[in-house]
Design goal:
This protein has 2 domains: 2-269 and 475-491, 3-Layer(aba) Sandwich (Aldehyde Dehydrogenase, Chain A, domain 1), CATH 3.40.605; 274-463, Aldehyde Dehydrogenase, Chain A, domain 2, CATH 3.40.309. 39% of the residues lie in helices and 22% in strands. It is built from 16 helices and 24 strands. The strands form 6 sheets. It has a 7-stranded mixed beta sheet, with helices on both faces. It has a 6-stranded mixed beta sheet with strand order 11-10-9-12-13-23, with helices on both faces. A 3-stranded antiparallel beta sheet has the order 1-4-3. It starts with a strand and ends with a strand.
Length: 499
C-alpha cells in the first residue's frame, strides 16, 4: 500500500502546535513510495508519556525493496556531476534551515530535549550538509610517479555503493546527517534505519531532501525494531557498507553481520569519558564545563564527561560550586523556554538510569545530589541530576556507561594519577582537561587515550575535525575529510601513457 508524500509543511504542522497529533501516521520511504504497512508502532512524548505518532513497521520484503531501490538509484547518482550533487545538498541545507523552528519543536516533542538544544541540533546538523556539499567538490584523485617512463599511474576514488545507516535516539538528526551527508556527497546511496524511539526527525529530513530535489531512492527510510529490521538490513548481501551509531552490545552484532559477506563497517559506540580539573583551574569556569559535559541532553550523550577527576586541593570547592549549579538547574516541560533539562527520552532509558542509582545505593556511594534533593515533574520520564563523590574505581558507576544525568567524581593527588585513572577505562571517545594554564592542559591532553580531547572547552564536535573513539568506543572516523573517505573506495589504474 502506498500514498503520496505529505508536503513537508503540512506534515510538520500536524505535529507542531497541535493538540491532536497522535493521529499522525508516518510511512516508510522506499524509492519514490511512501509505504504503509500492516503493522505500526507508537512514538511517545517523553515529557508526558502520551502517544505522539504511529509509525509503519516494515517487513523483510520492505527491506529487500529498499535495498533494491538504493541500488538502482545508485547507478544514476554516482554519475551525477559533482557540481550538481553539491548544489542539491546545498538546497537541502537551505530548506532544513527554513524549517528549523518546526523541526526543533518536533524533536523536543519526541526526544525531550529543551527547545534551545533542539534548535542547536538543527542548525548544527544542517552545517554538516553544507560542509559536505563543498567537500564533494574537493574529492581529488592523484597521478603518481610510475616505475617506467612509458607508464601512467592514477589513483581514483569511487563511491562504495549502497550504505546501511543505523542510528540511535539521543541526537536523532545529527547522528543521521553525519552519515547521510558524506555518503551522498561521495556518490553513495543509503537505506537508513532510525531508532524506533525517535524516527520522526529523520523522516522529516528525508521529506525535505525530496522537496529539495534529491532523486528518489538515494535515501530510503525503514522504520522498526532493531532486531526485527536492523539486523536483517545489516545481513542483506547487497549492502556494501554498514555505518552504525549506538551501543557496544549492538555494535558487536553489527560487526558480526558485516563479517558475513566481508562488508565494510564503521562503529560509533559508547563512552565513559573523563574530565580532569587541575589545581590551577578557575573554580567557577571549571564548574561550568563540568555541568555542560554531563547534564546537557539529560546526560544522554555518547561523549558525556561522566567521570570527574579533580585535584584534591580544589575538590571541596568545586563540588560546592557544582551542587549550587545543580540546585539551580530548571527541569520541566522541554517546550518551555525556561527549561534547562528535560526527561529521559524513553521509559526504558529512565529505568536503566534508575537501576544504576540502585546499584549506587547497594555499593554505598556518597551522594552529593540526587532525587532526594528536589521534586520532579509529576509526569514524564524525569530523573534528577545526580552527583556522587569519592567514587571507588571499582564501582560499576565509575566503569560503565550510564547514559543519563549521573556524574561520578574522584579526587586525585597529581597529574600522573589523573592521567592513569583517565586512561584506565575500556572506552576512549573523548576527554576534557580544565586548567588555568592552557599549555599545560594541551600537553596533558596529548597523553590521554581518546579520539577527541577538549581543553578549557566542552562538547564541541566540529565538522572539519575527526569524530570517533579509541578502544571500545568504535572503529572508523566520521566528519571532516575522514568522514567522506569512509564512503569512498580507492583504486589505481596503471598502463601505457596514451598521449
Ligand atoms: P542501541 O545500540 O540500542 O540502538 C542503536 C540502533 O541500532 C537503533 O536504531 C536500534 O534499533 C538498532 N539495533 C538494535 N539492535 C540491532 C541489531 N541486532 N542489528 C542492527 N541494528 C540494531 O543504542 P541506543 O540506545 O539507540 O543509543 C545509545 C548508545 O549510542 C549509547 O551507547 C551511546 O554512547 C551511543 N552513541 C554513540 C555516539 C558516537 O558518536 N560514538 C553517538 C550517539 C550515541
Amino acid at each position: 500500500m502506498s500514498r503520496s508524500a505529505l508536503p513537508i509543511s503540512d506534515f510538520l504542522k500536524r505535529y507542531v502546535n497541535s493538540e491532536t497529533s497522535s493521529d499522525v501516521f508516518v510511512p516508510a520511504l522506499i524509492g519514490t513510495e511512501h509505504r504503509e504497512t500492516g503493522t505500526t508502532f507508537n512514538v511517545t512524548n517523553p515529557a508526558t508519556g502520551e502517544q505522539l505518532a504511529r509509525v509503519a513497521e516494515v517487513s523483510a520484503d520492505d527491506t529487500r525493496d529498499a535495498v533494491a531501490a538504493a541500488e538502482i538509484a545508485g547507478n544514476a547518482w554516482k554519475k551525477v556531476p559533482v557540481k550538481e550533487r553539491s548544489a542539491l545538498l546545498r538546497r537541502w541545507f537551505d530548506l532544513v534551515l527554513a524549517h528549523r523552528e518546526d523541526l526543533a519543536q518536533l524533536m523536543t516533542l519526541e526526544q525531550g530535549k529543551p527547545m534551545a538544544e533542539s534548535r542547536g541540533e538543527v542548525t548544527y546538523g544542517a552545517s554538516f550538509i553544507e560542509f559536505f556539499a563543498e567537500e564533494a567538490k574537493r574529492m581529488a584523485g592523484e597521478t603518481l610517479p610510475s616505475h617506467g617512463a612509458d607508464k601512467r599511474l592514477m589513483v581514483l576514488r569511487e563511491p562504495i555503493g549502497v550504505v546501511a545507516a543505523i542510528t540511535p535516539w539521543n541526537f536523532p538528526l545529527v547522528t543521521s546527517v553525519w552519515k547521510v551527508a558524506p555518503a551522498l556527497a561521495a556518490g553513495c546511496t543509503l537505506v537508513i534505519k532510525p531508532s524506533e524511539v525517535t524516527p520522526l526527525p529523520e523522516q522529516v529530513m528525508a521529506e525535505i531532501a525530496l522537496e529539495a530535489g534529491l532523486p528518489a531512492g538515494v535515501f530510503n527510510l525503514l522504520h522498526g525494531d532493531g532486531e526485527a529490521i536492523g539486523a536483517p538490513l545489516t545481513r542483506h548481501p547487497r549492502i556494501d557498507k554498514i555505518s552504525f551509531t549506538g551501543s557496544n552490545v549492538v555494535g558487536e552484532k553489527v560487526m558480526q553481520a558485516a563479517a558475513c559477506g566481508t562488508r565494510g563497517v564503521s562503529l560509533e559506540l559508547g563512552g565513559k569519558s573523563p574530565i580532569i580539573v587541575l589545581d590551577d583551574a578557575d573554580i567557577e569556569e571549571a564548574a561550568d564545563w563540568v555541568m555542560a559535559g554531563i547534564y546537557f541532553n539529560a546526560g544522554q550523550i555518547c561523549s558525556a564527561t561522566s567521570r570527574l577527576l579533580v585535584h584534591e586541593a580544589i575538590a571541596d570547592e568545586l563540588h560546592a560550586a557544582l551542587a549550587s549549579r545543580i540546585d539551580a538547574l530548571v527541569l520541566g516541560d522541554p517546550l518551555d523556554a525556561a527549561t534547562q533539562m528535560g526527561p529521559m527520552t524513553s521509559a526504558r532509558q529512565r529505568d536503566t538510569v534508575l537501576s544504576y542509582l540502585n546499584v549506587a545505593r547497594e555499593e554505598g556511594l556518597t551522594v552529593l545530589r540526587d532525587g532526594t534533593h528536589r521534586s520532579l515533574p509529576n509526569k514524564g520520564y524525569f530523573v534528577a541530576p545526580t552527583l556522587y563523590t569519592d567514587v571507588p574505581v571499582t564501582s560499576r558507576l565509575w566503569r560503565e556507561e550510564i547514559f543519563g544525568p549521573v556524574l561520578c567524581s574522584r579526587r586525585v593527588a597529581d597529574e600522573a594519577e589523573a592521567i592513569r585513572l583517565a586512561n584506565d577505562c575500556d572506552f576512549g571517545l573523548v576527554a576534557t582537561v580544565v586548567s588555568g594554564n592552557a599549555k599545560r592542559a594541551q600537553q596533558l591532553g596529548r597523553r590521554l587515550r581518546a579520539g577527541v580531547v577538549w581543553y578549557n572547552s566542552e562538547q564541541l564536535p566540529l565538522v572539519q575535525a575527526s569524530w570517533g573513539g579509541f578502544k571500545r568506543s568504535g572503529i572508523g572516523r566520521e566528519l571532516g575529510p575522514w568522514g567522506l573517505a569512509g564512503y569512498l573506495e580507492v583504486k589505481h589504474i596503471i598502463g601505457p601513457v596514451l598521449d
